[in-house]
């Protein structure tokens, strides 16, 4: 009877009334939302959307209050309670319409004594009604039990778990939730733009949009939109909107080729159906630009952003869609940042900033986020004072909007501390980084072994190391490493990097024996963990490298044996990253021992390895070529040195331009080397002519100069002629 009555009489403005009645809709809808029953949700999609919008429309009826506390009664298992405890301080999203009451006593009276595995739970929800991200309405007038004073929350409300405590008096668990303060309200222009973005959706489109955007059901939403494409006629008005939604889903899950295809399909249809200055065309061009940027095709991205901006700026009123125009400018600026054209990037971001300042409140988080973007570009330009300026402006907004301990604010405060560190303002750096540590400890109080807390310890340790306070540096590095051993996987790179830092501090403190013992202890522990093939594990190899470096000054022979053992390991199981570290360390060792021929072998291996895994113009290859040139130079092989210097220079000039410091340094080294070659060539010719005139009947052999300090294991002798003048500084003449 209820179903037939609903079929005959339902109107969209009666959604709340039908939802609150003792009818099939309440149970059907909430069950479908709880288990994400796609078929049921699709069959009642019109009612779902009607209810969603009616709650939004009636929200104004309750906004005359400032603060609201409501309650929700439920039974839960103890396992569910324990699971929720892990998320204290975190946000939860309510994926259904949540019914609550202002009358706490009424809800307490309905609880019954439970002796089963389920327990009574009372949710206490605190709502600041100035926060427009929480949409709710008073539905007491629709409820037969008026004393309940029922408040209905819209789907997808974000709430923070503030506390979970047992109430022994009422024999129940009390869970305190606070309405999310992450977003502030936007002024009318921005809200109007958001409304325009969603108003063009039909009910059919909006259902799919809710599936992926509000409920996170990407696969179901994608399938739903594909069904619509097959079932609707080709000229249906919603076809391009379906392609746009599919593009959004593809973008969210990283399917960029599919996203590009869908956005392009939408654009092609729009260009045939609507005027070129329509916001749908502008948006489609912008979406395509975003995808090209994700695909690292920056020039193509800029081209589409430019098309979007050109249409907007030449045909659209300056007062329309201001926020949309600023978004495109931000996208353009960030694309130019990727191209390292920082001045152009700043120009676009500054224009976007001015637009947002015109239409948004001064304390809006969108302005704060843009200030951070501008600060990031100044960081790329190495202008630390400007970085601090913009970061501090952003922080002043976050201080007004965010609660004391908020993740985004903690991240920004950490970044400010890092900038002070770069400026060598150690005290300010410590102040900000210690504040960050306290915020993370508060935010993650239920998980003290969190990697973000470990990072904070490492940041502070790094400052103390730069201040040469090695004891405190070691203390903080130890804390960092202990946490990371608890929360990271055994093969995580941070465990390698940060153990290196501890050993390096001990080395600086000249506690070599302690460092070696610590390495040996760690080897023994890891051997028990990794089993019979422990030597082939990355962490093991890295510790062996550390031991080799520790023995370099104390016992070079022992160090050399460790290096040889490491190379044997790499013959069986080569990890490119660690192999590069090993070769680089060995090169430094052989340089220090003046064993240049061995250093040359390792340098060649390093170059060949990098060429096999990196692009031909990668900067690491350029630096390997430069180091190889320097090695040949010290071995007095000037022609080879010049050849590799030139190869390195070509890569770095292409990558960084002619003004980069490394480019200028190599150019100077080339000039100096050419001067040496020219000078040696002239001297060699004079010597040769003198010998020809006085000893024309004699031949001479040229051999490498024997360096008494060299520990090279090989000597190369050969006959040279006059053309080998570049090596004349390393030879002596043996007269026969």
From TrEMBL:
Q: Which Pfam families match?
A: TPR_12, TPR_8
Presence of keyword Repeat? yes
Q: Which SUPFAM superfamilies match?
A: ADP-ribosylation (SSF56399), TPR-like (SSF48452)
Q: Which UniProt key words apply to this protein?
A: Repeat, TPR repeat
Q: Tell me the superkingdom of the source.
A: Eukaryota
The UniProt entry's coiled-coil ranges are none
Signal peptide, first to last residue: none
Classification via InterPro entries? TPR-like_helical_dom_sf, TPR_rpt
The TPR repeats extend over 240-273, 282-315, 368-401, 454-487, 622-655
| Record's protein name | Uncharacterized protein
